[in-house]
Amino acid sequence: MKYTTFFGQINKDNGLQRISKYQLARIMNIAYLEGRRRGIQEASKKIQKTKNTREALVIDFTISKRLTELTGNKDPRALMEEICYLSEKEI
Predict the structure, then answer these.
(1) Nearest CA to 9 among 38, 32, 31, 29?
(2) How far apart are CA 41 and CA 15, in angstroms?
(3) Among the four 18, 35, 56, 86, which has the fewest Cβ within 10 Å?
(4) pLDDT tens, position by position, 9-20
(5) Rounded to whole angstroms, how far apart are CA atoms 26 and 34?
(6) What is this structure's pTM?
């Protein structure tokens, strides 16, 4: 949950000032997907060696793919810089 933790700390320290509604939605989607992925990973550990584990892995892969689309696998700081830059263009 590296992005969620980073965004949370930025918000706590400075607030998410001058972030467009589109970029804020992006941040919220990233946080949601990271939380959902973590929940699936924890649940699949508890139900190992069942058919549901395989399904959980497929869901985890789908979530990981969407996270990559949203973040580009960038470092959280670089992603925040991109979000701020895009927000300036959108506002």
Answers:
(1) 31
(2) 30
(3) 18
(4) 988 888 877 889
(5) 12
(6) 0.83
